[in-house]
Amino acid sequence: MSVNLRLITRIALFAALIYVLSWGTSYFPNVNLVFFIVFTAGFLWGAVAGILVGAVGMGLWTTFNPYGPAAFSIMLAQVGGITLSGLTGFFFRKSRWSERNKKTLITSLVLVAVVCTCLFYLPVNVIDAWIYQPFWPRFITGMLWSLVSVAANMIIFPLLFPVTRYLYDRERISSW
Predict the structure, then answer these.
(1) What are the C-alpha distances in Å from 77 to residues 51, 65, 71, 92, 126?
(2) How far apart are CA 97 and CA 66, in angstroms?
(3) Tell me: the pLDDT tens digits for 99-143?
(4) CA 26 to CA 3: how far, in whole Å?
(5) CB atoms within 10 A of CB 81
(6) 60 exposed, middle or buried (CB, 10 Å; 0-12, 13-18, 19+)?
(7) Over the range 17-55, which residues count as b (16 or more CB within 10 Å of their CB) and which as e?
(8) What is the rounded CA–CA span in Å between residue 86 and residue 65?
């Protein structure tokens, strides 16, 4: 099996980017670029790369963040949830995204942002509510609080997708 050092380096850089940008946005609760970065990794390099970027980046952030490490079960839910953004990016690339007009593409990206955010917060809020009880009030409050992230990602994904498209075009050129 051939080890692609170029891909390993890119995965490491994107995981580090998650950690650094999470520090930078830590003063804005539930507003961060993690979802988009993991989505982009899955879009550019495939499902495994997206999963690895999410797992390593979120693992670093939940362990070494300014508010202290998350409980282990919540950390597992966060890492598992964010990896689904990488899978979503991979499947989005497999869709006919390049054939869509601008309005349809933006609508698709908004929908993808909502999906990525919900796939992260559902398991995190279930585990959090299960551990810290009472379940329903805590779960509902957590889901309401995650709407901040949903709204932010609905802006971030369409706004930054041109960067992903640029990187995608560069990857296609450099693979020749």
Answers:
(1) 14, 16, 10, 23, 9
(2) 38
(3) 999 999 999 999 999 999 999 999 999 999 999 999 999 999 999
(4) 35
(5) 23
(6) middle
(7) bbbebbeeeeeeebebbbbbbbbbbbbbbbbebbbbbbb
(8) 22
Q: Which tokens belong to 24? A: 């930078």
pTM (whole model) above 0.85: yes
Please check whether residue 50 is in contact with residue 87, taking contact to mean a CB–CB distance below 8 angstroms: yes
- Count Cβ atoms below 10 Å from residue 10 Cβ, excluding itself: 18
91: tokens are 């499947």
d(CA 24, CA 168): 26
Residues 43 and 90 sit within 8 Å (Cβ to Cβ): yes
Residues 92, 112 contacting (CB under 8 angstroms): yes
Report whether pLDDT(5) > 70: yes
Tokens of 88: 């979503």
List the Cα angle 26/90/80 in 5-degree steps.
50
Domains, the chain, ranges and CATH?
A: 5-174 (1.10.1760.20)
